[in-house]
# Entry
Amino acid sequence: MRLSKWVMPLIVLCALYVFWSQNQSPPESGLDRTTQEDRDTKPVLRQKTVEVDPVPPEATPSKDIHLPSKPYAKEIRPVGPQIPIKTESQSTKSGNPYLLPTDSIPFRIEGNWAIAYGDVLLGTVTAPKGVTTGNHRPEKPRLWDSAIIPYGIHADLQGKERVEAAIRYFNENTVVRFVPIEGPEEDAVVFVPDERNCASYIGRIGGMQPIMVADKCGTQELIHELMHALGFVHEHSRVDRDRYLEVVWDNIQADYWPQFAMVPDILIHEYRGRVFDFDASSAMLYPPTAFAKEKGLTTLKSKPGSQLNPATEGLSKVDRERLFYLYGS
# Structure
């Protein structure tokens, strides 16, 4: 009787023990603890979503970046390579030294700068007293290493919105991306104030190279100067230009004749084997009445099959294609 009295309580206790043991986690081994610690301390990687500026399908860049509303402004003292002075020039029967292509560039001296073709910086010069012109034999211009090019704006430049609009045009419509400069050690283009000139080097010279900005320089003129900085010359200065247009020398002010001289072949870049014909719509082409003696006179006359109509807002389609062949990935 005494034994049967304890049977039922023992059965209940056994059932409770079994139920309790089934709901316990097994003891963690050392390996299990390490795995848990790894899970507790390992950082969680999240994919970052980056919005990019729209890019035309024909000009896809290797990298897209946003343009800050206020670029870095750096005060600089622009300098350029010294170039030799030569006062001799070619002569022709007509007395016009700019009719034929040569291997040298005629320039004028302004301050200590040698300026060619109206708006192309060659470098600084030390000229003898009274010498105001010269010739320079150029080397092949260097292109930039990539389509991403640093830029800055001189602190004293007024009307910075002109520069920002030109930069924005390139970033939104071409393969090139101009980004704010990060330090003085960088190769960059820097927009600097000038009393008279809108001017730029052709291609990359190294260091912080200036683009001169006078009050008269608008956004379109700065787009033109940036094309020089990217390695481009004037379209009407190509050595084959006489097939597409006629330079009406008699209608041009003589002081501006050098701006219509043909460039040496060495200044023309190859486009990965692609040959581009003359572009009658290029932003690098002067308007048909440029530097005329009188208002309304034609200085660049179209030839049959080529209607001169240079771009007045941005770049032509061919300008953008050329940029892609030079700087596209």
